[in-house]
């Protein structure tokens, strides 16, 4: 359809035993943009992510990626098309070094990971590229460290490096700054801005400051439905959004206010 | 410039470990095994090798694939029946009989794997156990398996139609079945080499990633079910190779080899020796089978003794014998 829309959902819905976690969500993610999905806890943000990446099958609606209906595909097939997600809980391979985390992603791209009869020296060929990716996220000195032993913020950075190894067309980041200290948040924010060049990013994010800094477009979800959509100025002044946040957490409402004025 | 230097230095450090065979331990192991029949009862030594290969095959799935199968006896014992039938009824040569049985175990592994792979953790274990019980009852009831008696008097035949495997060589007043022994030795080392190769291959790396974090591997585009199924089939085939060889060695395929006790035994061997290490299952198998052998005078107290040893082992060193030593030495065998 529209060349500038990389991902679109039509009437997307998911019910769990009659409970509608997500209903009638129509999203349009513009190519090359950073699109944020925000909303109070339990609004269905992560469920939407799982529906987009096929980790959950939708009850209703369709997902269209680059003009192709991907509703019926499997998670790995979606990933092969360049739609790569991260997870809310940091997703690394804990007993592999940071370098090997990236190399195993590069191995998937290069192919040959079914070969059980050749030496794993094949992976040495990916070392240079992996080191470059690690350098991009500031992990050069941690290449040999087991991923499970990295500090939280570095695990998230490693996750981004691993995702970048796949040269994704669309990155879905599930709360990339969750649980991070202020320095880490700033670093990851800068990192996302940097890697967003030439890519499209759809992110779920709680930290409204991060959203205000990064997002070109924001979709606010509440109770599984789209409540408001637009740029930060539009969304933050929408009374329904204020109410949705107030209703759940006064902190987040003041944060929203503060971020808007600041 | 700086980044370039760093890449150069790290290149030397970051080669994948263990990717090239260290010939010394392989040579030593081969020498020890080649000398063994002159010091211990050859049939017992051959049985040890078969069980060691069985445990290694099981460990490929549990230790490197992260999948706990509670039905591996059906591949081990099932292949024993298949090779027994092929050798006794069809009169195939031993290498063809064993190949046929191994292929049969692979097909059985594919069928059971396709069902079991859909479940995880304890459910996976239960599905494998249930399907293995079906195989057990088939072996009990089918007319060609000999029921409670099993298949007895399986002929050794001639290897490639040339070498008589039942021939013995008289050394120091002892009759040693050296032809059979070295045939079994070759099979065991071949199987072990294949497992070593698989673990240290690109496939092995992908399998490790899947074991570590399945959802993440999936999101990177790995079709995890295919890898798990491949590991399952390979493990089943190698367990079958071990069982088929054992049937040739002892000339018998019985219900013992296909029962759930045997499935439990191989779990025990692997955990005792060290899950996820290459050498651990060998040590575990040798320990368990030797204990059974040495303590056979105790009758049913063998089970109690081995059970106690197992409990002590799990409490004292969770990583198993080899796993614990490797951990202390910070090295992977």
Automatic annotation (TrEMBL), chain A:
Coiled-coil region: none
Stretch forming the signal peptide: none
This protein's record includes keyword Transcription: no
Ranges of residues in domain ABC transporter: 7-248
Pfam family, one: ABC_tran
InterPro entries to which the protein is assigned, alphabetical: AAA+_ATPase, ABC_AA/LPS_Transport, ABC_transporter-like_ATP-bd, BCA_ABC_TP_C, P-loop_NTPase
Example of a GO cellular component annotation carried by this entry: plasma membrane
Keywords: ATP-binding, Cell membrane, Membrane, Nucleotide-binding, Transport
SUPFAM superfamilies reported for this sequence: P-loop containing nucleoside triphosphate hydrolases
CDD domains: ABC_Mj1267_LivG_branched (cd03219)
PROSITE patterns (UniProt xref): ABC_TRANSPORTER_2
An MF annotation (GO) of this entry: ATP hydrolysis activity
Protein's UniProt name: Amino acid/amide ABC transporter ATP-binding protein 1, HAAT family
Species per Swiss-Prot/TrEMBL record: Chitinimonas taiwanensis DSM 18899
Automatic annotation (TrEMBL), chain B:
Keywords linked to the UniProt accession: Cell membrane, Membrane, Transmembrane, Transmembrane helix
GO cellular component, one term: plasma membrane
CDD domains: TM_PBP1_LivM_like (cd06581)
Coiled coil: none
Subcellular location: Cell membrane
Domain of life (superkingdom): Bacteria
Chief location category: membrane
PANTHER family: ABC TRANSPORTER ATP-BINDING PROTEIN (PTHR30482:SF17), HIGH-AFFINITY BRANCHED-CHAIN AMINO ACID TRANSPORT SYSTEM PERMEASE (PTHR30482)
Protein known as: Amino acid/amide ABC transporter membrane protein 2, HAAT family (TC 3.A.1.4.-)
């Amino acid at each position: 359809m529209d060349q500038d829309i990389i991902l679109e959902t039509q009437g997307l819905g998911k019910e769990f035993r009659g409970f509608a976690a997500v209903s009638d969500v129509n999203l349009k993610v513009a190519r090359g943009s950073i699109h944020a999905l925000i909303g109070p806890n339990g609004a269905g943000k992560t469920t939407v992510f799982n529906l987009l990446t096929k980790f959950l099958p939708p009850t209703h609606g369709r997902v269209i990626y680059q003009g192709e209906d991907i509703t019926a595909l499997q998670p790995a097939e979606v990933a092969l098309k360049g739609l790569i997600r991260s997870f809310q809980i940091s997703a690394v391979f804990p007993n592999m070094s940071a370098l090997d985390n990236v190399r195993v992603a590069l191995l998937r791209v290069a192919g040959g990971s079914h070969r059980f009869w050749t030496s794993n020296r094949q992976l040495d060929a990916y070392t240079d590229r992996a080191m470059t990716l690690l350098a991009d996220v500031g992990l050069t000195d941690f290449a040999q460290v087991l991923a499970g032993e990295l500090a939280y913020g570095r695990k998230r950075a490693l996750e981004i490096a691993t995702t970048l190894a796949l040269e994704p067309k669309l990155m879905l980041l599930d709360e990339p700054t969750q649980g991070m200290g202020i320095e880490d948040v700033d670093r990851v924010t800068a990192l996302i801005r940097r890697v967003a060049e030439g890519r499209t990013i759809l992110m779920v994010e709680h930290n409204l400051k991060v959203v205000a800094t990064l997002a070109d477009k924001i979709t606010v979800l509440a109770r599984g439905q789209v409540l408001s959509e637009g740029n930060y100025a539009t969304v933050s002044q929408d009374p329904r959004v204020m109410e949705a946040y107030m209703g759940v957490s006064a902190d987040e409402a003041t944060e929203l206010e503060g971020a808007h004025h600041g | 410039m700086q980044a370039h230097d760093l890449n150069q230095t790290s290149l030397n450090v970051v080669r994948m470990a263990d990717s090239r065979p260290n010939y010394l331990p392989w040579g030593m192991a081969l020498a020890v095994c080649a000398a063994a029949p002159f010091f211990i009862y050859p049939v017992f030594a051959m049985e040890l090798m078969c069980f060691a290969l069985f445990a290694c095959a099981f460990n490929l799935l549990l230790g490197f694939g992260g999948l706990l199968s509670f039905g591996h006896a059906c591949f081990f014992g099932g292949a024993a029946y298949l090779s027994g039938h092929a050798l006794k009824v069809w009169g195939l040569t031993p290498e063809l009989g064993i190949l046929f049985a191994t292929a049969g175990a692979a097909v059985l592994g594919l069928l059971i794997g396709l069902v079991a792979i859909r479940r995880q953790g304890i459910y996976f274990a239960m599905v494998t156990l249930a399907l293995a019980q079906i195989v057990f009852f088939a072996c009990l009831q089918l007319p060609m398996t000999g029921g409670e008696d099993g298949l007895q008097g399986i002929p050794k035949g001639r290897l490639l139609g040339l070498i008589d495997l039942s021939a013995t060589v008289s050394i120091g007043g002892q009759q040693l079945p050296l032809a059979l022994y070295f045939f079994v030795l070759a099979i065991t080392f071949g199987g072990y080499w294949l497992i070593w190769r698989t673990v240290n291959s690109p496939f092995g790396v992908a399998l490790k990633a899947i074991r570590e974090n399945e959802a993440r591997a999936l999101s990177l585009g790995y079709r995890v079910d295919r890898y798990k199924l491949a590991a399952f089939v390979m493990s089943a085939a190698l367990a079958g190779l071990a069982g088929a060889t054992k049937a040739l060695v002892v000339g018998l395929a019985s219900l013992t080899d296909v029962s759930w006790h045997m499935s439990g035994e191989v779990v025990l061997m692997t955990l005792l020796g060290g899950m996820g290490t290459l050498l651990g299952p060998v040590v575990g198998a040798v320990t368990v089978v030797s204990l059974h052998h040495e303590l056979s005078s105790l009758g049913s107290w063998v089970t109690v003794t081995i059970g106690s040893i197992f409990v002590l082992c799990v409490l004292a060193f969770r990583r198993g014998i080899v796993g614990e030593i490797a951990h202390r030495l910070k090295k992977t065998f």
